[in-house]
Amino acid sequence: MEHAGTLSIAGLNKQYEVKGQALPVLQDIDLTIEPGEFVSIVGSSGCGKSTLLRLIIGLEGDYRGDIRLNGQRITGTSLDRGIVFQEHRLFPWLTVEKNVAVGVLNADLTEAQKRETVREHIELVGLKGFEQAWPHQLSGGMSQRVAIARALASRPDILLLDEPFGALDALTRAHLQQELHRIWATEGITMILVTHDVEEAVYLGDRVVVMEPRPGRIRSTLPVPLPHPRDRASAAFAAVRNAVLHELGEHGSAAAGPLLAPARAPAALDLGTWQFAV
């Protein structure tokens, strides 16, 4: 796992100032993520999940505690950390190829190496043949594939995913979950997924971190001891999912819509034919 990073968070506290008053957002966050691990983070709105990702990516630096990647304290953004948001944020005036190339714009590579890296990652996300397509010609699922390719092109040590499939329909979301697992297995990098979808968290994660709000803190961390590919309809899968829902407790039921509405495709459905339709 050449590009897998170790993330360690210790005693993390974050607050904002609102009308002259301190508003705690994160409190006493301690978390270690091992190289090549896939960790899902769930919790109701307002528990600080996205704020935590912003701190890890380096978009904010005003906090107490310690955030380290491979032993080095995180200060500002860097190519060793990639991120994919719920909105794909593609540049509409650039083709698929050029959008992915943005990911290696500042990489220490020759022009030939950059072109090869872009080609490899477009193929990795299943978009070979769409290199010259424009964003407006792509579906939502295809656009997110481009965003993932762009984030991976710089070969980061860790990839952060902030509700990457939240705006997609159930079938597209289920298929892209499968594709994301394939990409993770292929690339071998560390991934952190923030999601409201408990089923998605269990389907993808080696562990599920459950957060509770105001201020955001870790309620519990549950292992997912299930081999891949995971069967969403199995009793073992349901047991882990129910354990996560139990940990969410009152906070989970308060946000029952996004937390308790799993996006599942029929177990026997062959989604392979959707490769270029999503």
Automatic annotation (TrEMBL):
Keywords: ATP-binding, Cell membrane, Membrane, Nucleotide-binding, Transport. Residues 7-238 form the ABC transporter domain. Transmembrane segments: none annotated. It holds the Pfam family ABC_tran. One of its GO terms (molecular function) is ATP binding. SUPFAM superfamilies: P-loop containing nucleoside triphosphate hydrolases. The keyword Membrane applies. PANTHER family: ALIPHATIC SULFONATES IMPORT ATP-BINDING PROTEIN SSUB, TAURINE IMPORT ATP-BINDING PROTEIN-RELATED. Belongs to the ABC transporter superfamily. This is Sulfonate ABC transporter ATP-binding protein. It comes from Hydrogenophaga electricum.
